């Protein structure tokens, strides 16, 4: 461990001189996809043993708690020098020590508490005695019962995915810090930090509100003090602290409050599968089995989601999926360790109560132990009834995707995940939008994908999208064909599900390349003071960008005011000649959507749809405002018509 600290200390010393021209010339090459500064190596796998190092900072997790929680139990984790064999005393009305657990590492102690309903808000002292004498002050706070907290999500929402480092830089003074593992900022490099932050999001809440957004999913904001690729946030190093390059815990809370004031919900992105190798619990690990490290050398996950439902799957393959590492700098967490499981759970409960945020998006959902994920969901629902969360299920079949969801028709036992990121619908939308034709291809693939919705309790809860941070930008997938791109966006906003736009999709940000769509992780031009254009305004956008923005603005607001597109039923018809027709309807309104995915314009007869048109005499095009009869409708190649049906 000492040699490792020396290595990182030396590397930090090099970073301190990164402002000099000579240093700048030696760490950068000419490739915008440069992953590491010249001279730096990728993290190397090494075993982590709970031997007990020098404690650099005393920690208590969670840092505080609340009275009146639904479940009275709480497990504290204290990190301090040589405390694992200490006895614990607490004298505070309504607080009882149930059990004390020493860790293998002498620097950790776990305390099970019961906080009775009679306990009052206030501070009390935790007294440790034995091998060392220690006292800590701990606080119980009153729960905030203000309205609009922890609202949850519904199909009525319009979601917007933000990569905070790339959206807007509202506070240039926090772009880098010398006391972090890297202080490099370079907007010309995809894998380096660019400087976006929480203040930048706050500064553009009016923009999002005007666009028609009702929920923002913000990629991980907690500290990721990693020497490279910290910009995406998926290698956390502290579960209770916002990365100071984004802001502070208090500023995040302000973001939630200010978003709520504008009718916008906030979704926090969390990871149960792994952490960064610079996480403080990895540098001085509590138990050897805190992480999965049963293999003698670095072993990746096999990434094969099918093993969870494969009746013939080997246990070796299942263990490789769950216990293999996602990346060499992301140690794989072992949720079978009950203390690790509680560490994750209480951090998630803490953020919900502290910030009042509305939902969680759970990264890499199918990789962790599924018993843990089920129990986690049950506990979250216990504390926050009606609260929602959705999981990333980047899988290869609807069966594999649906098995994780609440009330699905596949899994034995109860599941608690209300929704998933609907990759199967994503694949189908992109294929239909591209115009591929075939018995099971293109529009037919979309039809067949939706026909599997019976596997879900309610597929309308699924988060639908054309692109996100892990895949190529949709405009690039369509080879910069703006018409196909815009038409597919219109389909996204009318088809079943909770639609999610990736930041900048509304102005056609493009980019393809990288293992996880990294080339599309571009800055939103106008979010930095030095930008020559401001694409947050119409004046800064090109004609095609403005056309796309106006299309989405119109459809997002139409969707906000049309429950039939949110929670309404769906009726669809087998595609013919590349035309896919579906209806969204409820008792108040009926909307017909006709999507011509072919290369030819068509005059499309409507006789086939009489079962859905009965009682209606005309229709009005939602986008153009023009009226249509219900005998036939003309549809241009690669275009989509949205017709609101009218009764006499």
Automatic annotation (TrEMBL):
Glycosyl hydrolase family 13 catalytic domain boundaries: 161-559
Protein name in UniProt: Cyclomaltodextrinase
Q: Which PANTHER family match?
A: ALPHA-AMYLASE FAMILY MEMBER, MALTODEXTRIN GLUCOSIDASE
One Pfam match: Alpha-amylase
A GO molecular function assigned to this protein is: cyclomaltodextrinase activity
Cleaved signal peptide residues: 1-24
Q: Which UniProt keywords apply?
A: Glycosidase, Hydrolase, Signal
At the top level, the lineage of the source is Bacteria
Broad EC category: hydrolase
> Which GO biological process annotations does it have?
carbohydrate metabolic process
Q: What is its EC number?
A: 3.2.1.54
Organism of origin is Haliscomenobacter hydrossis (strain ATCC 27775 / DSM 1100 / LMG 10767 / O)
């Amino acid at each position: 461990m000492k040699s490792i600290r020396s290595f990182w200390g030396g590397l930090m010393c090099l970073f301190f001189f990164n402002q000099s021209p000579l240093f700048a010339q030696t760490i950068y090459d000419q490739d915008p996809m440069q992953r590491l500064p010249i001279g730096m190596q990728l993290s190397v796998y090494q075993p982590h043993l709970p031997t007990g190092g020098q404690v650099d900072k005393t920690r208590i997790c969670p840092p505080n708690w609340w009275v009146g929680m639904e479940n009275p139990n709480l497990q504290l984790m204290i990190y301090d020098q040589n405390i694992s064999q200490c006895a614990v005393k607490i004298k505070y009305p309504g607080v009882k020590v149930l059990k004390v657990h020493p860790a293998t590492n002498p620097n950790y102690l776990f305390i099970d508490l019961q906080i009775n309903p009679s306990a009052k808000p206030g501070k009390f002292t935790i007294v440790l005695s034995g091998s060392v004498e220690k006292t800590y002050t701990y606080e119980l706070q009153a729960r905030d019962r203000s309205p609009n907290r922890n609202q949850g999500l519904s199909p009525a929402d319009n979601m917007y995915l933000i990569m905070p480092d790339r959206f807007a830089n509202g506070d240039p003074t926090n772009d880098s810090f010398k006391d972090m593992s890297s202080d490099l900022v370079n907007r010309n490099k995809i894998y380096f930090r660019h400087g976006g932050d929480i203040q930048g999001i706050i500064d553009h809440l009016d923009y999002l509100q005007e666009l028609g957004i009702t929920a923002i999913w913000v990629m991980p904001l907690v500290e990721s003090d990693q020497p490279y690729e910290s910009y995406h946030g998926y290698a956390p190093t502290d579960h209770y602290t916002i990365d100071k390059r984004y802001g502070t815990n208090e500023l995040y809370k302000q973001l939630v409050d200010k978003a709520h004031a504008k009718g916008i919900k906030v979704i926090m992105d969390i990871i149960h599968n792994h952490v960064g190798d610079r996480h403080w619990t990895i540098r001085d690990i509590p138990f050897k089995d805190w992480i999965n490290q049963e293999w003698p050398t670095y072993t990746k996950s096999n990434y094969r989601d099918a093993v969870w439902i494969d009746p013939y799957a080997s246990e070796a393959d299942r263990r490789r999926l769950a216990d293999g590492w996602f990346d060499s700098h992301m140690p794989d967490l072992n949720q079978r360790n009950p203390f690790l499981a509680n560490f994750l759970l209480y951090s998630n409960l803490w953020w919900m109560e502290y910030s009042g945020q509305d939902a969680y998006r759970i990264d890499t959902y199918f990789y962790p132990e599924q018993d843990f994920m089920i129990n986690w969901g049950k506990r979250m629902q216990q504390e926050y009834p009606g609260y929602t969360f959705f999981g990333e299920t980047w899988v290869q079949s609807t069966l594999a995707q649906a098995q994780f969801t609440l009330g699905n028709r596949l899994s034995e036992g109860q599941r608690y995940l209300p929704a998933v990121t609907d990759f199967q619908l994503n694949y189908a939308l992109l294929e239909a939008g591209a115009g591929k034709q075939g018995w099971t291809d293109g529009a037919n693939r979309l039809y067949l994908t939706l026909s599997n919705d019976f596997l879900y309790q309610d597929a309308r809860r699924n988060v639908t999208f054309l692109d996100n941070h892990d895949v190529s930008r949709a405009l690039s997938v369509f080879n910069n064909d703006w018409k196909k791109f815009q038409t597919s966006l219109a389909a996204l906003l009318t088809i079943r599900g909770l639609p999610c736009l990736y930041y900048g999709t509304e102005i056609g940000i493009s980019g393809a390349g990288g293992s996880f769509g990294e080339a599309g992780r571009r800055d939103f031009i106008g979010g930095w003071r030095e930008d020559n254009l401001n694409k947050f305004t119409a004046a800064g956008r090109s004609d095609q960008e403005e056309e796309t923005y106006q299309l989405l603005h119109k459809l997002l607001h139409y969707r906000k005011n049309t429950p039939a597109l949110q929670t309404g039923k769906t009726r669809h018809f087998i595609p013919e000649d590349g035309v896919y027709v579906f209806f969204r309807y409820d008792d108040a309104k009926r909307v017909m959507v006709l999507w011509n995915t072919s290369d030819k314009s068509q005059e499309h007869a409507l006789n086939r749809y009489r079962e859905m048109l009965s009682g209606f005499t005309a229709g009005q095009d939602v986008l153009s405002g023009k009226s249509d009869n219900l005998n036939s409708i003309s549809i241009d190649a690669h275009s989509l018509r949205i017709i609101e049906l009218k009764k006499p």
